[in-house]
Amino acid sequence: MRCVKCKKEAYTSIKAPKAGFCAEHFLEYFLRQVERAITKFKMFSPQEPVLAAVSGGKDSLALWDALLLLGYKAEGLHIDLGLGKYSQASKQLCCQFAANRGVKLYIFSFLQTYSLSITEIARRTRRPPCSVCGVVKRHLINTLARQTGYRTVATGHNLDDEAATLMGNLLSWQEGYLARQHPHLPAKDSSFPARVKPLVRLEESEIRAYCQLRNLNFYENRCPLAKGASSSAYKHALNMLEEEMPGTKRRFLFGFWEKEQKRFSLPAWPELKNCQICGNLTTADVCLCCRLMQKAGLDPLMPLQFEIVSPADGAQPQAVQTAYCQEPR
Amino acid sequence: MRCVKCKKEAYTSIKAPKAGFCAEHFLEYFLRQVERAITKFKMFSPQEPVLAAVSGGKDSLALWDALLLLGYKAEGLHIDLGLGKYSQASKQLCCQFAANRGVKLYIFSFLQTYSLSITEIARRTRRPPCSVCGVVKRHLINTLARQTGYRTVATGHNLDDEAATLMGNLLSWQEGYLARQHPHLPAKDSSFPARVKPLVRLEESEIRAYCQLRNLNFYENRCPLAKGASSSAYKHALNMLEEEMPGTKRRFLFGFWEKEQKRFSLPAWPELKNCQICGNLTTADVCLCCRLMQKAGLDPLMPLQFEIVSPADGAQPQAVQTAYCQEPR
Predict the structure, then answer these.
(1) How far, in whole angstroms, is CA A205 from its chain's centroid?
(2) Between chain A's N and C termini, which has fewer beta carbons within 10 Å?
(3) Looking at the whole model, is its pTM more than 0.95?
(4) What pLDDT does residue B303 have?
């Protein structure tokens, strides 16, 4: 196969539309897809600083790398879930990336602040780990973004992630989620920064090829808690259909955002009020995160310790600063 | 496993909700599902005669059998596509069924009327066989139903068929099809009889168990033209998800009809007019079936020959009558 642009031998290829790319033009293609997502969904302007939520996996490190290559001011935030080897390795890869690029990385550690891993917190709340992790991480990300002045948080969700979520929401007709699922959730007053997904036009296989091309060290294994997650089943089903009918995922996801999502707008959005404990916006008297913390026997207002790996540290990542943040009552 | 009703040893089981049934109570369960679909979607009353479109496969013969068991007046219509052994065997099984039950069966043969199989007609029109077959069969079914005074045609579409169709329509956001897909499409003036799908609450595996229990001889192989049909891919994907999350297909399909389909109602239905050739209702000047016939070099107004296997024939099926029908201009 040859590069569709320069006819050199292809470095990699995409399936829908079928096209080969040499290394140079694949990079160009990839970055253009990121840029198009940012522009099309009005995610942020070139001047706006962005906080990239990085797990150490391929998607989030590719995201951070692409944002920097495109000239955006992007710092990182890593949450260390306290899951043994998986967490240690993931954190180290994020630190390496930050040190190599000379960019700032914020690190929050569950063990450091709560003396508990996410597994233990989930066990105490008797809820599935992925559900607890999602709620608590969202709270932590919002809190740190606010404390450090970020109005936009970017995550590495890709086309496969979003198509799988959409399929799950349609199969059980989750009207609220269908109304809300979007690559750009705008900021809500001062408590919630905007959430954006600049990789939404790129498939997992394309991101993998990008990581290889850019020589990115990422942690290959999935989170040990995510085994058997229903999103895997949806992805598997979609990939099977994509194999038979190339373009299915893209048509499905972008068709939804372009034409169909408006059908699912909720008749009335629930009224938001301030959580009686942490003050964050919520639909209940006490937000879900504070309720989970209480159920786990933790103080929802406990100071959250963040380490910061700053560009001044040089190649060796080390904790040089600790930030405390507490929500106003 | 034991029968959920009488605790006898189970003859078969269903997965969502998980339950075992002895032979007697499985039959009761199955017929109740058919009856519920008929009632819930207001398909037809016990007095109304119904024309069952039968291919000779498990679904349509189970449908015909269940309708007769429930006391409905159901006669059959079989369309012989002229596909060699597949068509011969299918037709014979339909004839056997009709003769055993002493019920009337109408048979239309492509070779007899057109001297061409559906494959040859499709080849001449340069369209996929399944698409041509769908259009022409619909025309034939409507025509015979009208000629014989039937206002309702029942087909054997089951839960798997409908869930797969829904998934396909959602993946490519076929708004018109999403608005129309329903187990009961009401009759439209005198040209179109109502189309109903009484097996829509039953899964393929349940229908298979019913056929075994009722000792129904059906043709096991699929239509030779349907190989690689996208509906198979959707069914496969849905069955994979059902395996991991039992109840997925049912929740998906009935959730759609109960709450969500209204979101897809078309802003304006296209205006229907009479086909300039056959007089049937259509959105174009000449209906698609007449256009296909012309493209295949056939006269759209050719008299359609039907054989009738009547209860008077006894055990041996034989052609005893020929009906001609021609659409008014």
Answers:
(1) 17
(2) C
(3) no
(4) 84
